[in-house]
Amino acid sequence: MRTFVIGDIHGGLLALEQVMKRAEVTTEDTLIFLGDYVDGWSQPVEVIDYLIELKRRQNCICIRGNHDQLALDWLEERHDNFDEEMWYKHGGKATVESYAKISAEKKKAHIAFLENLQDYHLDDQNRLFVHAGFTNLNGVKWEYFSKLFYWDRTLWETALSLDPKLKPDDINYPKRFTVYDEIYIGHTPVTRIGKTVPVQKACVWNVDTGAAFRGPLTIMNVDTKEYWQSEPLNELYFNEKGRN
């Protein structure tokens, strides 16, 4: 049995199907999805359908992304502190158009799926899986604001700026990076630093390889660090804009 982590999908079902096939995933494997299943390409409904069915067949852990929460707020007509125009520009348009085609029964099932997403997953090897990050120096169990699990960018920014020569026992070493043996995140595409493959900084692995834009989707074996990627999403969905 293997354990895989999958980066941000953003409505790209074709890419998800590709990486599942290329990694030769079986029903014996555990799959940890880091969130952002919607907002971007034209198949958010189909992605969630796929995940709902997948959870029936094997062990799947689905983490909540910020775009998933935005879509849920829209589906449940919660407008407090929700900038619908901004969301629409950042991928929400594709989600709105996709959900215009579904039945009330399916919409109800998708709302239940989104409501039951996990804020994070901590495994028995002290490896943390979270969409964006956390800010409490003692770890996720002490986080004051749960929204930061799917909105924070300071964890990744700190990891990027950290001097590689600084050792974990140094007084200046960020305490957040000593709590867990490994941290797996998405949220901030590595394409922002010119990469299209998973990037490790300190104990943090970022596996968002830019599938919302012009990058591929990535699935990675968390034990061996071997990874497989789809074709770039703008090539799979050549007649769409995505979030570009």
Automatic annotation (TrEMBL):
Pfam families: Metallophos (PF00149)
Top-level lineage group: Bacteria
Domain Calcineurin-like phosphoesterase: 1-154
Protein name (record): Serine/threonine protein phosphatase
Source organism: Flavobacterium hungaricum
